């Protein structure tokens, strides 16, 4: 009987062994459950955020989808304490097994399964945990979880065959979700301690490893006491494993958590407007006319031109990854190296803060304090203001969502007039208040907006880019997306057409008001200043003083259509720019980026540089998969460009840009042009040095939001100081390759006129800039 029983036991054992072997073979072959293909096992983490770098090597930010804000780091970048904490806590025999720790598994079966000791620990190795994270869906019950275990064991063994132990540690830490959008150890280190992983201390490493047990339960933000206790358990395990001494354990366990917490977000980092522009630009699909509203035809034209001429535009959809799919900037782990210089970007942001935020905005608020139509112009009636606000209501997300929900129009308007609790933006931080949604629209319109771009005239590399004063609350990009009337900043283009048609800076023109016949109607341009009225004045004086009558005179001698054609050569592609006499005063809408690119022509011997935003792109293995070169076209002759530099210098040395010299004490070789449109709605300044061309626009969200006085509303007051503050900071930074001693490449004592008898010295504090109708 005893022999029969023993034989039966052996039979059962052999059958179990054979059956188990068959099951594991079937799992390995994918006949039972899910077995990832070999290529997935060789590259198990394919959801990496794309990293965006500045030209000086700074990580500017990432592009990620949902919470997959994962940035891969190599094992060599992990501190020893982090690896030791993980092994001591999660898998003390990690370096001794091949994916399955049978000792730990047996202990778990006996103590947890048979004896019911829940504190006895689990049997899963780090490799098994990685397999679970990578390939197992969340189990809904115990039976389902037990069915997943054998599959994870097989995957763990295969991972061990494909990776070294160090690589498995790196994979585990790169993949784990540490909560609060902190996916992967690099993002987690930054989220909880604002550090790179390599700089983590022993206690910080222990805290992060402690989260691996259950990040929600040991959440250091919501449950700091639990987290501290768990961290100390990890430290105890490190002591037990011999990684730290008893005295070190006592010392470290007495330390606080030391959090420096912030949630990682795509809005973090520098150049947020630029990164958002670049994200949209690279992922753009080929423009189709039906996808654009009728009023957005200029955008369709611009996008179509960019798609055909710029390899970066729509790059993700023009190129395929190794799987034959369009590149996905959220999951393909690309590295995008931009032309932005983090130092210069910082100086641009500081300049905007110094002038727009700290000076212009308080002045604007003061002017509006007792104005019934505020923040709109006092020249408007209440009925006109109400019409503007009603239009803004219809354009709001709140209105559209209520309309889609089927709410009646009367109830929607009532909701917009009903006070509700809300948080609103101020430059001193968000505050809680109660106001109607309609009043909140009016409130946000009271903030002035701006656009700024700085680029090299030699290769087009964009060094600084600002689309507004605060990306989180005013995310409409006024650098590339928004277009506003350019006023007198268009005049250098007109003057360059004159130079190309045989005129000279010292040619004389009548400084008188004249009436011209345009399309059968009389047109009489106005000019705010009557200085030297009735005299014959040189063209260079007309540009320096931004004289409208001289510009109109030049336009009358040239072809408006030729002027439009030249504007297109300058890279200004708005199809709604129509040939007319009035075009000489800048009533057309152009973006800051287009204007800055156009002005590179003057500093680059008549050759325009298109903006260069990115130099190269690498894949997640460090292979260079794309490079980008400057794009240029000849606009005017070298002689014409030299004549324009001569005149643009005059704008600064004795014209409407004179305060650059006497107020801001910038004495570099430079040219520039101010611009102000009707009613001070748009203020501009374009400045060029031999090494940088930069442009600034300042204005309101609507054209009817502006200063009502020329003293505050002109370009020399609103826009020029931002350029001045920026350039002073750039010149002061000796680590940058820009000098206030640089000279334009012109012959010594260059003078395109045979004689220069005219002085154009003007006290700009009392000079009133141009207006046009």
From TrEMBL:
InterPro entries from the entry?
Beta-lactam/transpept-like, Glyco_trans_51, Glycosyltr_51/Transpeptidase, Lysozyme-like_dom_sf, PBP_transglycosylase, PCN-bd_Tpept
Broad class of where this protein is predominantly found: membrane
**Domain Glycosyl transferase family: where?**
57-238
Q: Where in the cell is it found?
A: Cell membrane
Q: Sorted alphabetically, which keywords does the UniProt record give?
A: Carboxypeptidase, Cell membrane, Cell shape, Cell wall biogenesis/degradation, Glycosyltransferase, Hydrolase, Membrane, Multifunctional enzyme, Peptidoglycan synthesis, Protease, Transferase, Transmembrane, Transmembrane helix
Q: Spell out where the chain crosses the membrane.
A: 7-27
Domain Penicillin-binding protein transpeptidase, chain residue ranges per copy: 453-690
Recorded hits in PANTHER family, A to Z, give: BINDING PROTEIN TRANSPEPTIDASE, PUTATIVE-RELATED (PTHR32282), PENICILLIN-BINDING PROTEIN 1B (PTHR32282:SF11)
Q: This chain belongs to which protein, by name?
A: Penicillin-binding protein
Species annotation: Xylanibacter muris
């Amino acid at each position: 009987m005893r022999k029969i029983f023993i034989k039966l036991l052996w039979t059962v054992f052999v059958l179990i062994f054979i059956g188990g072997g068959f099951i594991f073979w079937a799992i390995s072959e994918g006949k039972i459950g899910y077995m990832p293909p070999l290529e997935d096992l060789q590259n198990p983490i394919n959801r990496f955020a794309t990293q965006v770098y500045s030209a000086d090597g700074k990580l500017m930010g990432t592009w990620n989808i949902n919470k997959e804000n994962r940035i891969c780091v190599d094992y060599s970048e992990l501190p020893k304490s982090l690896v030791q904490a993980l092994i001591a806590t999660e898998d003390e025999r990690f370096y001794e097994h091949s994916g399955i720790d049978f000792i730990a598994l047996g202990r778990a079966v006996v103590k947890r399964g048979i004896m019911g000791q829940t504190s006895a620990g689990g049997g899963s190795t780090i490799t098994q945990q990685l397999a679970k994270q990578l390939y197992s869906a969340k189990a809904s019950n115990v039976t389902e979880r037990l069915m997943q275990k054998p599959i994870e064991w097989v995957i763990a063994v295969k991972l061990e065959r494909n990776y070294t132990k160090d690589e498995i540690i790196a994979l585990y830490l790169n993949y784990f979700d540490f909560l609060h959008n902190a996916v992967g150890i690099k993002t987690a280190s930054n989220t909880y301690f604002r550090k790179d992983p390599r700089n983590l201390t022993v206690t910080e490493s222990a805290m992060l490893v402690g989260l691996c047990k259950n990040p929600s339960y040991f959440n250091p933000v919501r449950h700091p006491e639990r987290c501290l206790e768990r961290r100390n358990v990890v430290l105890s395990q490190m002591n037990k494993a011999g990684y730290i001494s008893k005295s070190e354990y006592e010392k470290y366990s007495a330390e606080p958590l030391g959090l420096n917490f912030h949630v990682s977000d795509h809005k973090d980092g520098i150049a947020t407007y630029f990164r958002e522009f670049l994200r949209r630009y690279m992922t753009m699909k080929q423009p189709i006319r039906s996808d654009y509203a009728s009023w957005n035809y200029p955008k369709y034209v611009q996008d179509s031109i960019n798609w055909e001429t710029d390899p970066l535009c729509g790059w993700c959809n023009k190129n395929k990854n190794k799987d034959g799919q369009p590149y996905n900037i959220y999951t393909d782990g690309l590295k995008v190296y931009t032309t932005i210089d983090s130092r210069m970007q910082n100086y641009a942001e500081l300049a905007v803060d110094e002038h727009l935020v700290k000076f212009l905005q308080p002045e604007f608020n003061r002017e509006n304090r007792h104005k019934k139509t505020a923040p709109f112009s006092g020249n408007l009636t209440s009925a006109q203001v109400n019409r503007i606000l009603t239009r803004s209501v219809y354009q709001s997300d709140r209105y559209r969502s209520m309309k889609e929900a089927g709410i009646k129009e009367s109830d929607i308007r009532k909701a917009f007039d009903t006070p509700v609790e809300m948080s609103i933006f101020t430059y001193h931080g968000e505050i809680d208040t109660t106001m109607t949604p309609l009043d909140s629209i009016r409130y946000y319109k009271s903030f002035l907006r701006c656009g700024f771009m700085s680029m090299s005239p030699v290769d087009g590399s964009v060094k600084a880019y600002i689309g507004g004063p605060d990306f989180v609350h005013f995310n409409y990009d006024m650098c590339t997306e928004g277009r506003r009337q350019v006023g007198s900043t268009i005049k250098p283009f007109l003057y360059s057409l004159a130079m190309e048609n045989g005129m000279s800076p010292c040619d004389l023109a009548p400084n008188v008001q004249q009436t011209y016949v345009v399309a059968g109607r009389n047109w009489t341009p106005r000019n705010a200043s009557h200085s030297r009225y009735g005299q014959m004045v040189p063209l260079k004086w007309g540009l320096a003083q931004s004289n409208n009558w001289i510009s109109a005179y030049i336009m009358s001698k040239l072809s408006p259509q030729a002027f439009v054609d030249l504007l297109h050569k300058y890279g200004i592609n708005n199809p709604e720019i129509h040939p007319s006499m009035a075009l000489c005063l800048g009533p057309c809408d152009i973006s800051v980026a287009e204007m800055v690119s156009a002005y590179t022509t003057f500093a680059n011997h008549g050759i325009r540089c298109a903006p260069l935003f990115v130099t190269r792109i690498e894949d997640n293995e460090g292979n260079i998969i794309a490079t980008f070169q400057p794009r240029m076209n000849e606009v005017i002759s070298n002689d014409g460009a030299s004549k324009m530099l001569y005149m643009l210098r005059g704008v600064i040395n004795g014209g409407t840009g004179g305060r650059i010299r006497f107020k801001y004490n910038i004495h570099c070789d430079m040219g520039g042009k101010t611009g102000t449109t009707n009613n001070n709605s748009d203020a501009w300044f374009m400045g060029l040095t031999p090494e940088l061309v930069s442009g600034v626009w300042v204005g309101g969200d609507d054209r009817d939001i502006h200063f009502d006085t020329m003293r505050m509303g002109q370009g020399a007051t609103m826009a020029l100081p931002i350029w001045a503050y920026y350039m002073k900071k750039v010149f002061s930074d000796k680590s940058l390759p820009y000098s206030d001693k640089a000279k334009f490449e012109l012959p010594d004592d260059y003078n395109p006129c045979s004689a220069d008898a005219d002085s154009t010295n003007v006290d700009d504090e009392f000079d009133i800039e141009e207006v046009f109708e």
